[in-house]
């Protein structure tokens, strides 16, 4: 699988991305051969960019092996340090020693999640890395949004074309949270009514 230059540029012209004010995104890991999010996230964080700091960005930090992951706010890529799995993640404290804002404790909704995965299908199945981190987190977030009466965020997975498998191959269990849309270099696949309504 080769990296595709320009991938992020074309797909993040995406309406959903442009419209989002608060997003949760993964920090891509080359070893895991994930779609690169570094360029688009640097742009989100760059004060000189077209988007400025108009968007709040929260990224994952794994807390333990018990499926606990938090999404912490970062303001610069320098907020990230490598963890034991070689994935960049935010330190719990910012440069001034203050606890970073956690998305489940904030008072406004997230519009968009950019999700990683090993494989996906057109019915919204996502095969993660077996940690259950995202499924657990997404379930918690969706419950919070329900309690607060917020719109549910759009769950968009970033995929290489070869990671999109035929229907019925990816196993699902009751805890799997389906995705709303798939974005690959060959285009956008809206899946849920929410994605179709917002395209
Ligand atoms: N970029 C990124 N960040 C992420 C995730 C992710 O999938 N991608 N996660 C999503 O949950 C969480 C971390 N979970 C992870 C779980 C396993 C492996 C991993 O390296 N798995 C190896 C096999 C390891 C082993 O079994 O020894 C692999 O898949 O090759 C990485 C991240 C939170 N952050
Ligand atoms: N919300 C949840 N509550 C309880 N157990 C869960 C929940 N979500 C996932 N699990 C359990 O965690 C384990 C791993 O889940 P799964 O294989 O779906 O992870 P994954 O989707 O591959 O990983 P990730 O979500 O981190 O990308 C499974 O045993 C699953 O039943």
From TrEMBL:
Reaction(s) catalysed by this chain's protein: (6S)-5-formyl-5,6,7,8-tetrahydrofolate + ATP = (6R)-5,10-methenyltetrahydrofolate + ADP + phosphate
Organism field: Oryza sativa subsp. indica
Alphabetic keyword roster: ATP-binding, Nucleotide-binding
Broad class of enzyme this protein falls into: ligase
EC number: 6.3.3.2
Binding residue positions for ATP: 126-134
One Gene Ontology biological process: tetrahydrofolate interconversion
Gene Ontology cellular-component terms listed: mitochondrion
Family listed: Belongs to the 5-formyltetrahydrofolate cyclo-ligase family.
Protein's name according to its UniProt entry: 5-formyltetrahydrofolate cyclo-ligase
UniProt GO molecular function: 5-formyltetrahydrofolate cyclo-ligase activity; ATP binding
Binding residues for substrate: 27, 34
């Amino acid at each position: 699988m080769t990296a595709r230059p320009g991938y992020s540029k074309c797909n993040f012209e995406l309406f959903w991305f442009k419209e989002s004010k608060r997003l949760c995104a993964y920090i891509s890991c080359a070893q895991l051969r994930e779609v690169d999010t570094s360029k688009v996230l640097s742009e989100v964080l760059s004060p000189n960019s077209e988007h400025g700091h108009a968007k709040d960005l929260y990224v994952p930090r794994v807390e333990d092996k018990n499926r606990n992951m938090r999404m912490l706010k970062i303001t610069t890529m320098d907020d990230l340090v490598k963890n034991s799995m070689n994935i960049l993640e935010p330190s719990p404290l910012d440069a001034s020693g203050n606890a970073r804002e956690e998305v489940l404790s904030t008072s406004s909704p997230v519009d968009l999640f950019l999700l990683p995965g090993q494989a996906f299908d057109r019915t919204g199945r996502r095969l993660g890395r077996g940690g259950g981190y995202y499924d657990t987190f997404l379930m918690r977030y969706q419950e919070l949004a329900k309690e607060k009466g917020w719109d549910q965020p759009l769950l968009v997975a970033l995929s290489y074309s070869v990671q999109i498998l035929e229907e019925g191959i990816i196993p699902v269990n009751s805890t799997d949270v389906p995705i709303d849309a798939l974005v690959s270099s060959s285009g956008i696949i809206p899946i849920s009514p929410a994605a179709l309504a917002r395209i």
